[in-house]
């Protein structure tokens, strides 16, 4: 897509080069200070909301695609802001700039230009209107002009780096099979998102470094116990699942990236983060979450394990005398078009939760969230409580064996910890 500029005082004056190189770092944030009332709007927060509205609200991008694109937007904002504050190692490379530049002009410009590169031309007018609104909130002068130039350069560098990264998707599909334990679509042709596991990671070196041990052996007693558990508690007509367990399953059936995006913005707002802290907060979260999804979907292809629906209906063929087939069994929530192991919702949630704990230095973070269409609201006092709910909810939904859920939690935690020790480190 073409690069967009806004006329008037937001026009680009100059360009800065940002070279490619990975940073390495812990995720400990600088002390969080309240934002003064006379300071301009935190443009990282503003453009996170704009990105959500465009990528999820208008474009309707599915969870993996939306997560990757949010990571690209926030990676650019982080590099733009960090080019000015120079407080942490960059995402893409070295930089030289002037600390007097406006971090808010840099963030708004970076986000605007990246979204213009990711979205169809038909969205230009809305993006340009938001961009002018952002610039109107920032005082005229060299600081704004310098910030615009930094944001332009960061956006160009990130878009160039991600140009051939394995998006936007398409073939090849996940491998299918008809034998015991082998994944196959529930509906003909419902085989998608294998491309996610082939996307170039943002911060981790190789997705394969986070491979999981895999599903339980089909003939083991443990597998039989897990199949019976999801058969009883994940059924569409279960009489054993409690009302609250059903609510958990339905609540966490929301678009995972969208739900967590609302939660992350709520927490950032409650923490009263400054622009520079917000830039690192969102970049670390979305790049950690995206890298966890990339590793997760590569692992799905590696194991290509059948989901409970197929396993329960075809239990007579699994070679396990402890399992019993139910050809009419249905899950509470409809199956997505990719294999069971590991759980993508748990990979993403775990990466978010463990990155949040590192960033904020605590597990005690109160928040609430509401399902976008069902109106179900759940409240939490600790981040770990939400993660534990997701782990169980995907079994109550009838979507995953518990081993797949636990593997997703482990994978997301491992990615978050690796990034915590090797990326975006304080200078």
What's the gist of this structure?
The chain has 427 residues and is mostly helical. The chain has two domains: 8-161, Up-down Bundle (Vanadium-containing Chloroperoxidase, domain 1), CATH 1.20.144; 194-422, Vanadium-containing Chloroperoxidase, domain 2 (Orthogonal Bundle).
Helix content: 40-55%
Tell me the name of the CATH class of the largest domain.
Answer: Mainly Alpha
Oligomer: single chain
- List segments where confidence is low: pLDDT < 50 over at least 5 consecutive residues: 1-39
- One letter per element, helices H and strands E, the order comes to HHHHHHHHHHHEEHH
Characterize the main sheet. Answer: 2 strands, antiparallel
Shape: elongated
CATH topology of the largest domain: the name is Vanadium-containing Chloroperoxidase, domain 2
Number of individual domains:
2
- N/C terminus separation: 35 Å
Instruction: Tell me what the CATH architecture of the largest domain is.
Output: Orthogonal Bundle
Number of H/I helices: 13
Radius of gyration: 22 Å
Spatial strand order of the main sheet? 1-2
User: Which structural class do you get from the secondary structure elements?
Assistant: mainly alpha
How many β-strand stretches? 2
The residue-averaged pLDDT reads 90
Strand percentage: under 5%
Layout of helices and strands, plus pairs?
Elements: H1 43-58, H2 63-85, H3 103-118, H4 124-136, H5 142-161, H6 221-233, H7 243-251, H8 256-270, H9 275-303, H10 308-313, H11 344-360, E1 367-370, E2 377-380, H12 383-396, H13 402-422
Antiparallel strand pairs: 1-2
């Amino acid at each position: 897509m073409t690069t967009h500029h806004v006329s008037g005082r937001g026009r680009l004056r100059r360009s800065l080069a940002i070279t490619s190189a990975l940073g390495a770092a812990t995720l400990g944030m600088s002390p969080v200070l309240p934002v003064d009332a006379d300071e301009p709007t935190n443009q990282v927060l503003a453009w996170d909301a704009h990105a959500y509205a465009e990528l999820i609200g208008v474009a309707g991008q599915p969870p993996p695609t939306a997560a990757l694109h949010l990571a690209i937007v926030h990676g650019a904002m982080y590099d733009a802001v960090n080019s000015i504050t120079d407080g942490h190692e960059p995402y893409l490379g070295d930089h030289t700039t002037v600390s007097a530049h406006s971090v808010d002009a840099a963030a708004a410009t970076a986000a605007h230009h990246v979204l213009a590169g990711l979205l169809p031309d038909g969205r230009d007018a809305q993006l340009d209107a938001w961009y002018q609104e952002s610039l109107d909130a920032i005082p005229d002068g060299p600081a704004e002009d310098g910030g615009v130039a930094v944001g332009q350069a960061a956006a160009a560098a990130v878009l160039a780096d991600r140009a051939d990264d394995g998006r936007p998707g398409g073939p090849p599909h996940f491998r299918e099979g008809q034998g015991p334990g082998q994944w196959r679509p529930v509906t003909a042709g419902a085989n998608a998102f294998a491309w996610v596991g082939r996307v170039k990671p943002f911060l981790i070196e190789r997705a394969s470094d986070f491979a999981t041990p895999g599903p339980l052996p089909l003939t083991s007693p443990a597998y039989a116990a897990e199949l019976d558990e999801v058969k009883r508690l994940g059924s569409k007509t279960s009489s054993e699942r409690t009302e609250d367990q059903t609510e958990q399953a339905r609540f966490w059936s929301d678009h995972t990236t969208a739900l967590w995006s609302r939660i992350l913005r709520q927490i950032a707002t409650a923490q009263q983060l400054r622009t520079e802290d917000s830039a690192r907060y969102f970049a670390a979260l979305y790049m950690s979450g995206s890298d966890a999804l990339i590793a997760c979907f590569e692992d799905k292809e590696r194991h290509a394990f059948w989901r409970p629906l197929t396993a329960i209906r075809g239990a007579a063929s699994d070679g396990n005398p402890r399992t019993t087939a139910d050809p009419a069994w249905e899950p509470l929530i409809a199956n997505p078009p990719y294999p069971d192991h590991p759980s993508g919702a748990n990979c993403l949630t775990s990466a978010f939760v463990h990155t949040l704990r590192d960033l904020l230095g605590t597990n005690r973070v109160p928040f609430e969230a509401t399902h976008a269409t069902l109106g179900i609201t759940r409240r939490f006092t600790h981040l770990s409580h939400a993660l534990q709910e997701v782990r169980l909810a995907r079994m109550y939904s009838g979507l995953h064996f518990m081993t797949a859920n636990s593997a997703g939690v482990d994978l997301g935690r491992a990615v978050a910890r690796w990034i915590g020790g090797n990326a975006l480190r304080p200078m």
